[in-house]
Amino acid sequence: MKLFKLVNWDRVDKCLSSLRKNALYSLGGPKGYNKLSMFKAILLSQWYNLSDIGLEEALRIRLDFILFTGFEVETEVPDHSTFCRFRNILIDQGLDKVLFEEINEQLRKYEYQSEASGMCYIGCDDH
Question: What is the C-alpha to C-alpha distance for residues 53 and 80, in angstroms, rounded to an integer?
Fold first, then answer.
């Protein structure tokens, strides 16, 4: 994954820091997933045209995906509904376009550009 080294992830993480805390975490329960890891997973789903279920499955078996996202090999990866909710939060807060533009701006320096279509709301039913 050559892109891992081309992108300044600190800049992306700074964009993600504007996510409202109450949109990601309830007042109780376990600690949430790392926002940057979640966004990297969403990028992979866009770049590889994966459904949320396909992304969840890929993160269970593809070491390159695990390394790119920063999820731990020994821990449970987020499930498909978690990716769906995270994507919808990005859209609600207008960060989807900001983040993809940030990625594309950085990649243009190397004559790369993400060809993925924009994100859209997806129902998070488990059916």
Answer: 5
Place of tokens 């488990």: 126
Short-list 76, 69, 75, 80, CA closest to 12: 69
Q: Please state, in angstroms and rounded to a whole number, the distance separating the CA atoms of residues 85 and 75.
A: 20
- Residues 12, 98 contacting (CB under 8 angstroms): no
DSSP line for 2-25: THHHHS-HHHHHHHHTTS-HHHH-
**How far is 62 from 52, CA to CA, in rounded Å?**
15
Q: What is the pLDDT of residues 50-100, one digit of tens each?
A: 999 999 999 999 999 999 999 988 888 999 999 999 999 999 999 999 998
H/E stretch holding 59 reads helix 52-61
Residue ranges covered by each domain of the chain: 3-16+33-108
